[in-house]
Amino acid sequence: MNKKQNSKQKIQKLAENDARPERAIQPTELLNDTLRRIFGCELADATQKQVYRALCISVRELLTEKNRVFGNRCTEKERKEVYYMSMEFLVGTSLRNNLFNLGLEAEFRKALADAGFDIDEIYAIDPDAGLGNGGLGRLASCYMDAATGMDYPMTGFSIRYEFGIFKQKIVDGWQMEFPDNWLEMGDVWLQAREDDAVEVKFGGEVREWMDNDRFKVAQVGYSSVMAVPYDMYISGYDSDAANRLVLWSAKLPQSFDMAAFSRGDYVRALERNAMAETISKVLYPADDHIQGKRLRLKQQYLLVSASLQSILKKHYKKYRTYTNLPEKVAIHINDTHPALCVPELMRLLIDEHDFGWDEAWDITCRTLSYTNHTVMSEALERWNVDLFREQLPRVYSICQEINRRLIEHLCAVYPNDWGKINYMAVIANNEVRMANLCLAACHKVNGVSKLHTDILRNGIFRDYCQITPERFLNVTNGIAYRRWLCQSDPLLTDYLKQLIGGDFLRDARALEKLLPYQNDEKVLADLMAIKRKNKERLAALIENQNGVRVDPDSIFDIQIKRLHEYKRQLLNILHVLYLYRQIKANPHGDFMPRTFIFAAKASAGYIRAKQIISLIVAASKLINNDPDVNDKLKVVFLEDYKVSLAEIIIPAADISEQISIAGKEASGTGNMKLMINGAVTIGTLDGANVEIHEQVGDENIFLFGMKAHEVEELWQRGYHPTEFITPELQAVLDMLTSGVLGQRFDDLVDSLLTNRFGTADPYMTLADFQDYARAQRDVAAVYQDKQRFARMSLINIAKAGIFSSDRAVKEYADEIWNLD
Ligand code: Z15
């Protein structure tokens, strides 16, 4: 046909009729075409960076076409669509994931090798899109991947932070934060749509008037910010679909600055410009904790208002009405950060589309659903009324009306029970409470693990659950195991494929086919050999980054997650020091060699968390340089934990540390990633550990510590941490205050022993210490018997299928979003 047609045009043509244009791709030809178009060169004379960009652009164009065709088909069939609203998407790297999902990995690897390029080196250029803090953001990305793989039309909405999660460096034993300019390279994945920019209004005041017998309300005297959408295409494994993550970027509207410029107010105009654009500048680095800052509220409203406007616009274009919104659109609120969806959808329906209150409320309730991710009181969002009203006057007046009607209703349900009514109110004590706003409106509310949902039902949300029990349900979290197992552990994946066939690539439950091999010595030996290889890979990284040599034959005991007191990294490091003392006391004793590996970012202002990092670093200096313990004990703190680092650490884990105080970790998802890679959990019965235990049974997990109800009972009785201190534990605490660690950690010890900071040992670290040490002794004993440990590992892999995000997304689709 047309010889001059380039690959981009060819992809477009193919996609018209074929949902899988990738199947007709010729890698070399495609790369050469893109290189010619973008850089005016070909593979033979391109630099590695040019090849990287050309490869990304080729993949992006392929996904653009898939998305266009998929979108058209969904429109034709009038399929219901879901919009996932989240302040965070922890995407990680995209290139390898996309090639893998499109089934193009091997072909491109070969084509590049033929041209003298190593695809692994090209992957290494791809930066992490760190648009999230931790579990919540990563969950959102896992769900985008899963939904796309299952052909669900799902669009993610978030913010195009110029700076995502900070880059962590340890300087003199203290965490320092540095900006991570991911867009420098990561912008290849983004496609701006300037023409679809949306106006978002801040400040001013509410004006009400009569217009031909109609009561009208509007916000006047506001300042505008333009939200510009940037598309990032999301691929799904072996699927017809490609979905979009839409990231909003704040920009000053043209009209605004022109006026100031023409007044000659040049500097002020540019200053204003900078002010507006700070809204999407940086991700707030606090996980599971709120600060109540004005800029954060503006970020949330930018996301919510821009997204809802664009959803409504698209919906109206398709259906010429808004009344069928709940039948055709599901909007999901990921934690309370986008809870402004409730009043903003009301505002748009009432002020801009002329609905009355009752009909608008009905549409709003049936369209919105909400996931809660935490029961920690410091993470439950509440906004100061004055700040809220100042920034969002009209949204505030709608919240007041929601609250007025809610209270009226509650007075009928719970007459004179003012305690309860106050607890359930949307506005009370000079604050707007975002969780109650979601509970009052959303037709479905879910927790993220069985235990967590029980705590919502019977604890913090029990009053709402009493009036609308049918709204509450559990959806246990899941992970995109094709990234976390198949891509990050190719050795294990290839081995499983030849042993049990490739069904598990489509259906994670097929991993159970491994179970019949649990007593097969050859298989157990093979699994151990693979684990050993992955440990060697991590050991090399550790030597390179930390200058510490660790023994791949030692137990790799791994705790990787955000640094938070409730997650109890402190318990882990105190136990390491306890082991250290035991070895010192008996240097020739029989000790199972161990390597304890930590990685964690602390929120920038969270001093106590930073002190714990310092303690880990100080302990590692002391221990790693002590010849007495040299081949028995090592401690490593790896800097700058992020998705791409996790992908290297996780396949090398023997033991997965999930040791939060019971009742506080809503689910955990790292626990699932480690499990599916064959790590055995040492943990409390908290979050999804409960369900991991259900899957593997007592024999294949190391449980310890108080159960959630026992924690509650101990608080009731009165907790006195000093009662739990044995002489050995006291000696460990003395190490922290004596200076042997190169510095004194008096603050940390104080926080465990005295009430000076509120409650002594608020996370009951000391109460669980003895049983933790016991469980760790069990670990060492079991590991002596390599076969037995390998069997535990095998059973963990085999039973991890239920924690696939495919299962989780299917539950959301069926029980919350009502997708077809
Ligand atoms: C976050 O990462 C989580 C909860 C939050 O409320 C915030 Cl603000 C951030 C985590 C939970 O701590 C974790 O247990 C859970 O697995 C994860 O969300 C995903 O649900």
Based on the model shown, name its key terms.
820 residues; alpha/beta; Rossmann fold; 3 domains; ten-stranded mixed β-sheet; six-stranded parallel β-sheet; 34 helices; globular; binds (1S)-1,5-anhydro-1-(4-chloro-2,5-dihydroxyphenyl)-D-glucitol; Glyco_trans_35; carbohydrate metabolism; transferase
Description:
The protein is α/β, with parallel strands linked by helices and 820 residues long. The protein has three domains: 1-77 and 100-127, no CATH class; 82-93 and 129-164 and 179-377 and 434-476 and 811-817, 3-Layer(aba) Sandwich (Rossmann fold); 482-714 and 728-735 and 767-803, Rossmann fold, CATH 3.40.50.2000. Helix content is 50%, strand content 15%. It contains 34 helices and 25 strands. Strands 1, 4, 7, 8, 11, 12, 13, 14, 18 and 19 form a ten-stranded mixed β-sheet that branches. A hairpin with a 2-residue loop joins β9 (205-211) and β10. α1 (7-17) packs parallel to α3 (48-76) and α23 (521-546) packs across α33. The longest helix has 29 residues, at 48-76. The protein is globular. The model has no long low-confidence stretch (mean pLDDT 96). The site of (1S)-1,5-anhydro-1-(4-chloro-2,5-dihydroxyphenyl)-D-glucitol has 19 residues, from α7. Residues 133-136, 139, 287-288, 335, 373-374, 379, 448, 477, 665-669, 687 line the site of (1S)-1,5-anhydro-1-(4-chloro-2,5-dihydroxyphenyl)-D-glucitol (Z15).
